[in-house]
Amino acid sequence: MTKDSQHPSDEEDLDLQSQMQAAQEQDDDLEDGEGLSLEQLSATYSEVLDKPVVEQSDDGESEEPVEGELLDDEEGSLARTTPSSIVEAVLFVGRSDNSEISGKEIADLMRGVDVDDVDRYVDELNASYAAAGHALAIQRVGSGYKMGLANQLQYVRDRFYGRIRDVKLNQTAIDCLALVAYQPGISRTELDEQRGGSSGPVLNQLVRRELLEVRREGTGKQATVHYFPTDKMLELAGLASLDDLPQVEEF
């Protein structure tokens, strides 16, 4: 981290301390999950932000979409997406259980696209990733696909999971870590709004475990709490810096 942590006074931090004490009783809940991974951070952040609103035209009917357009008639930038970019977006977000997504499921999202087209788009995407030296590649698993590390970087996964095999985090903790990683300095209020629920106890546990760092801006009752990722969290996720995070488009 580039700045020193600012430690609140006892008087200013009575509320935080009381929540920290309550959080100690919930350690088992925090650990009722799985280890943190780079893919989880990016996918979780994308899922938290991705809340599309489906709108109907005044006459209740949608216009006939062109080839490669999403079946739901979403205006704006999404109307100009290509079939290839839709395939990439679907596989980047993936499933919550990291299972493969079939070509038919992907093709069904677009008009005029079949399974063979999806397979061709996957080949084109993988070729572009390889040419650009990207760390990710689309893997064929059974009759489906999923995004993962390129073959030449599998050793990173092995080293990473060997390092964190004893660290378990539940989904709420991963949500918080993802939001803080992609938005360093996010306030508790902002984080709660984006998650749609209270995050205080889990945040306090993550601070106590030195995965997050608390900094205060302002003084007295006007002080606001902000959260930043720590070096320990970066190491846990296999990152040299936050610049190494996969880019996630904010819709």
Describe this structure in words.
With 251 residues, the protein is α+β, with helices and mostly antiparallel strands. It folds into two domains: 14-37 and 167-244, Winged helix-like DNA-binding domain superfamily/Winged helix DNA-binding domain (Arc Repressor Mutant, subunit A, Orthogonal Bundle); 67-152, Winged helix-like DNA-binding domain superfamily/Winged helix DNA-binding domain (Arc Repressor Mutant, subunit A, Orthogonal Bundle). Helices cover 43% and strands 11% of the residues. It contains eleven helices and six strands. Helix 1 (14-24) crosses helix 10 and helix 3 packs across helix 8 (171-182). It is elongated, with a radius of gyration of 21 Å.
CATH architecture of the largest domain: Orthogonal Bundle
Q: Please tell me the overall pLDDT.
A: 74
What is the β-strand count?
Answer: 6
Characterize the overall form.
elongated
CATH fold label of the largest domain: Arc Repressor Mutant, subunit A
N-to-C CA distance: 28 Å
Approximate helicity band: 40-55%
Poorly predicted segments: 1-7, 51-57, 73-79
Number of helices: 11
Q: What is the H/E string?
A: HHHHEHHEEHHEHHEEH
Tally the structural domains: 2
- Major sheet description: 3 strands, antiparallel
Class per helix and strand makeup: alpha+beta
The level-1 CATH class of the largest domain: Mainly Alpha
**CA radius of gyration:** 21 Å
Q: Strand-residue fraction?
A: 5-15%
The spatial strand order of the largest sheet comes to 1-3-2
Q: At the fourth CATH level, what is the homologous superfamily of the largest domain? A: Winged helix-like DNA-binding domain superfamily/Winged helix DNA-binding domain
